[in-house]
Specification:
Chain lengths: 573, 71
């Protein structure tokens, strides 16, 4: 009897002291159930509330390859259930790098999930899947996500933390059937991701993309970019970069298509930068508005700056306006010499060249503007007409917005507001008028209404004339420098055009750049031939669209005084 | 005879009360499970509605309309 009790006592001691933790953990595993809660990724909307990116929970049928001894047999059983090919399912199971998980089908419906779950080695889990209803329309601006819902490009990457939200975990007590019967504890608070409202307008984005794609195909160009912006605020209404991609299928895309050329590609701008130089020169009184400059009849040679020629023909005396209308390189070189390197450099820096604009997208290039102390006599004559300087498309847009809005400093931006799960605004970009001048308002107004209107009406940009509005703009045809250095490539150009309208009170600025149009087609390669028609088409459609939404925009027909476009007001959600 | 009947009745009555008490004791857990079930169903319905909305958005966005007009 004593021996029996001693044995019993020993056994109790052994179980409690040596095996206590083991049985305790088994007990906890049996009683408790953990339910991780993944937050829903925030939506991305355009300025009119159209959905650009959103997440939805879908049922994912998956296989656990390590449990499946006969993949062919399992595939044959699963194929009619999921309405997929058995060979395809077998391939997914065999080629999976993860022995515990191989995704078979996302978005299966309830009967399919129910039937699939009964097959050994097949399971169903619910996961968030990112949708991009507009496909490749705004792919570079919006970006895309990985399979585990991390942002990898565009706004998805830049605002990944805000869009992700925060996860939580609920621990329940469960019964023998694993049904939750009581909440034990909650780790963290589930917070869905915040929504982001962009300044993009999907309709204007579609106008820009359609026109640009058509022209790129027509000229067999290597790539193209277009930006549409509101000059008064810097809000980006459209940003297109071609080639583009479908973010719903970003995994199988060529890396070349993922680049947002509107902000990453830097290039020598050519003549398109001339209005900026003239603005700096007139504002600093280095030249007078109505002054005449002798343009050396097309051949300007001097010590320290070599030889400068013209693109088309030589000119004699030209006014400052005519220098821009005729796009005279010699005229610009002389303006640069009058300015001097310090003032020219400072002016270009003020316009934003040589530094990032700060737009809310990853990968923005700074461009290249060498410090003035490194300039030579060549630099001060070449930079004014767009050589020896590298810019990005977004920098050009910023500069022309400054000119178009009366000289006010603006920053191009893509994000309008951030909202929480219930639609309440958390952050709103203020729409107050910008403060601070880069150039005097009268200089900016003169530049727009005189030389830049002249470029459209009688100069190199006549293909950008609009019927209902007076447009203004500037062409640019830049050669592409050799990658290995030493001069420019043969027959390789970047055709650019920047335009705005209406000239009386600019509401929209459009920039189009088309890289390497095929010269051998014989259809031209200059900014005026290749880029100007695209800019005009985008401008016209945009103004018609905005006029429809805001009827106070009056076309030029002499009937009534021009009224400004939409008032700056808080967006409605 | 009568006392046996009364004893039987009391035992039966007490047993019924005990069973009912145990049943009531588990009511909280049953309610909790039902709540979880309804919440899951509500979430499922919300997802289906949101899915429909996304399908609608993909049909009526400017790119899709432009494509259909071109064709």
């Amino acid at each position: 009897m004593i021996a029996a009790f001693l044995a019993l006592t020993g056994r109790c001691f052994y179980l409690q002291y040596f095996k206590g933790d083991y049985y305790y953990s088994r007990c906890i595993n049996q009683q408790q159930s953990c339910n991780p809660q993944r937050p829903r990724r925030g939506v991305i909307l355009d300025c009119r509330g159209r959905v650009l990116a959103a997440s939805n929970r879908v049922a994912v049928v998956f296989a656990e390859p390590r449990l499946i001894k006969d993949p062919k047999s399992t595939s044959n059983r699963l194929a009619p259930v999921l309405d997929m090919g058995a060979h395809e399912i077998c391939k997914l199971i065999l080629e999976s790098r993860n022995p515990g998980y191989a995704k078979i089908k996302a978005g299966a419906d309830a009967p399919q999930c129910s039937a699939a779950g009964r097959i050994y080695g097949i399971g169903v889990q619910y996961d968030w899947l990112r949708h991009y209803p507009m496909g490749r329309l705004a792919s570079h601006a919006v970006g895309f996500t990985s399979t585990d819902n991390r942002g990898l490009g565009g706004i998805e990457f830049k605002y990944d933390k805000e869009l992700t939200g925060s996860a939580a975990e609920n621990i329940f007590f469960a019964d023998v059937h694993r049904r939750p019967i009581c909440l034990k504890e909650r780790n963290g608070a589930l917070v869905d991701g915040r929504g982001i409202i962009l300044t993009l307008d999907a309709a204007i984005q579609q106008f820009a993309r359609a026109e640009l794609a058509k022209q790129r195909e027509s000229y067999q160009a290597e790539s193209a970019a277009a930006i549409v912006a509101e000059p008064k605020t810097g809000a980006i209404l459209a940003m297109v970069s071609l080639p583009d991609f479908d973010p719903n299928d970003a995994g199988s895309v060529d890396a070349n298509s993922l680049r947002n050329r509107a902000i990453t590609d830097q290039f020598e701008p050519g003549s398109i930068i001339k209005p900026v130089t003239v603005a700096i020169a007139v504002d600093s009184a280095a030249v007078g508005r109505y002054e005449t400059i002798f343009c050396e009849n097309g051949n300007y040679v001097g010590h320290g700056f070599g030889r400068i020629g013209e693109y088309r023909r030589g000119f004699g005396d030209l006014t400052i306006s005519q220098i821009l209308i005729e796009s005279s390189n010699i005229g610009m070189a002389k303006i640069g010499q009058r300015l001097g390197k310090e003032r020219l450099y400072e002016g270009l820096k003020l316009f934003g060249f040589g530094s990032q604009t700060g737009i809310e997208l990853p990968g923005e290039a700074e461009g290249l503007l060498r410090p003035a102390q490194n300039w030579t006599g060549y630099s001060v004559t070449r930079i004014p007409f767009g050589q020896e300087i590298s810019v990005t498309a977004i920098q050009l847009v910023q500069a022309f917005c400054i000119i178009a809005n009366g000289g006010h400093l603006i920053r191009p931006h893509l994000v309008r507001a951030m909202v929480d799960d219930n639609g309440a605004v958390i952050k709103l970009r203020p729409t107050t008028p910008p403060i601070g001048y880069i150039i005097k308002p009268e200089v900016a107004k003169w530049l727009v209404s005189d030389p830049l209107v002249g470029v459209i009406n009688e100069g190199t940009g006549t293909r950008a004339k609009l019927e209902k509005w007076q447009a203004f703009g500037k062409t640019g045809t830049a050669q592409i420098a050799r990658a290995e250095g030493g001069g420019y490539e043969e027959n390789a150009y970047i055709a650019s055009f920047v335009a705005g309208a209406p000239a009386e009170d600019p509401q929209v600025i459009v920039l189009v750049t088309i890289r390497r149009p095929n010269v051998k087609l014989g259809k031209g390669y200059t900014g005026g031939m290749v880029a100007a028609p695209v800019a005009a088409a985008i401008l016209e459609k945009t103004l018609n669209y905005l006029q429809t939404r805001q009827p106070r925009l009056t076309p030029r027909d002499g009937r009534s005084e021009f009224l400004p476009l939409r008032a700056q007001s808080s967006p409605s959600f | 005879m009568r006392s046996a009947f009364c004893l039987g009745f009391v035992v039966f009555y007490l047993t019924a009360i005990l069973i009912f008490a145990v049943y009531l004791r588990g009511a909280n857990k049953r309610m909790f499970y039902m709540l979880c079930t309804y919440k899951a169903e509500q979430s499922q319905l919300k997802q289906e509605l949101w899915q429909k909305q996304l399908q609608l958005e993909s049909l009526i966005n400017p790119a899709a309309i432009s494509q259909r007009l071109d064709h």
